[in-house]
Every structure is written in C-alpha cells, then in structure tokens.
Specification:
It is a single chain. This protein is an alpha/beta fold and about 170 residues long. Helix content is about 45%, strand content about 15%. The chain has 2 domains: about 50 residues; about 110 residues, 3-Layer(aba) Sandwich (Oxidized Rhodanese, domain 1). The strands form 2 sheets. A 5-stranded parallel beta sheet has the order 1-6-5-2-4. It has a two-stranded antiparallel ribbon with strand order 3-7.
Length: about 170
C-alpha cells in the first residue's frame, strides 16, 4: 500500500512539474507579446514606419535597406543611434561618424552602453547577418525600435562617412 501511495505522489509531483513548465512557457509568450506590442506602440508614437508584415508576423525589429537607414541616420530632425556589431578585427573602408561600436561577441555584457531603449537603433554589421542576431538579442534585453540594416557595410553609402581610424571604434 505504501508503495502505491508513493508512486501516486510521484506521479502527481511529475504532473505538477509539467504544468509549472507549461505555465512558464505561456507566461514567456505573453510577456514577449506584450513587449512586442509596446515596441510597435513606441514606433507609432514616434511617427515611424510600421509595415503590415511586421505587425502581422510579430517581428520585433525592422529590416531596412542601407539606403533607407542612411537617410534616417542623416536626417537631422530625427535622433537615431547607429550600433556597429562587426567582428573586432573588421575594418571597413569608411565607418560612419557618431557610432557605438560593440562587437556581437561582447553585446551580452556591454549592451548597457546603449543608454536609450526607445530611440531608434540602426544595427549594422559586415553583411547584415550579425546585425540580425544583435537585434534579436537586444529585443530580449528590453530594447525597442530596433532596425537591422540589411546588407550591412557591404552596401552602406560612403557619403558623409569618416575614414576608418582606431579612435573611432568606441565613440558613443
């Protein structure tokens, strides 16, 4: 009899553990959905573009062409942050002025260097792949208004860019 009671208690305990795990998954999904809605509301509040696909597919960041990102970056009436997540040894021919340089490998520990979570952030990498990973990581850190620059430095216009210099790496 004691063995059956013990087995029953173990079964109940396992079921409760599974229910707790499922509730945590549901809670995580709800939190992500709420954060995504906040992300979209910040964009709408700031008068920024929010396309139907982004809303319908629940994408937490925009994909911008380098041309569109360059226009936003050079628009003096809009404040943006340009975040460079290229590899530590990557040296582009031209690096834009006023850039925050945090290699993707260091982003998890240095993301606090990005002072504002709601200002539009343009994320650039060598070819636009590392910047996707960076956008996804920053969403999890509570950043809103992220924009991946598709194609990265490979297609970034060179007008109004500074020649690459070592002292330009960590400017904020």
């Amino acid at each position: 009899m004691d063995l059956k009671l013990f087995q029953m208690l173990e079964f109940i305990n396992n079921r409760l553990s599974n229910i707790e795990k499922n509730l945590q998954k549901i809670d995580d999904k709800v939190n992500f959905s709420v954060d995504l809605q906040r992300n979209h509301l910040v964009r709408v509040k700031n008068g920024e573009d929010l396309n139907d696909t982004q809303v319908l597919l629940g994408c937490p960041y925009n994909d911008l062409t380098p041309k569109k990102a360059f226009e936003l970056y050079n628009n003096e009436s809009k404040r943006v942050i340009l975040l460079d997540v290229t590899m530590k040894n990557f040296k582009p021919k031209h690096r834009p002025k006023e850039i925050i340089r945090i290699p993707l490998e260091d982003l998890d520990t240095r993301y606090a260097e990005i002072k504002n979570k709601t200002t539009p952030i343009l994320v650039i990498s060598e070819e636009g792949v590392r910047s996707i990973v960076a956008c996804e990581a920053l969403v999890k850190k509570g950043f809103f208004n992220l924009n991946n620059i598709s194609g990265g430095y490979k297609f970034w216009p060179t007008q109004d860019s500074a020649p690459f210099e070592e002292n330009n790496l960590n400017s904020a």
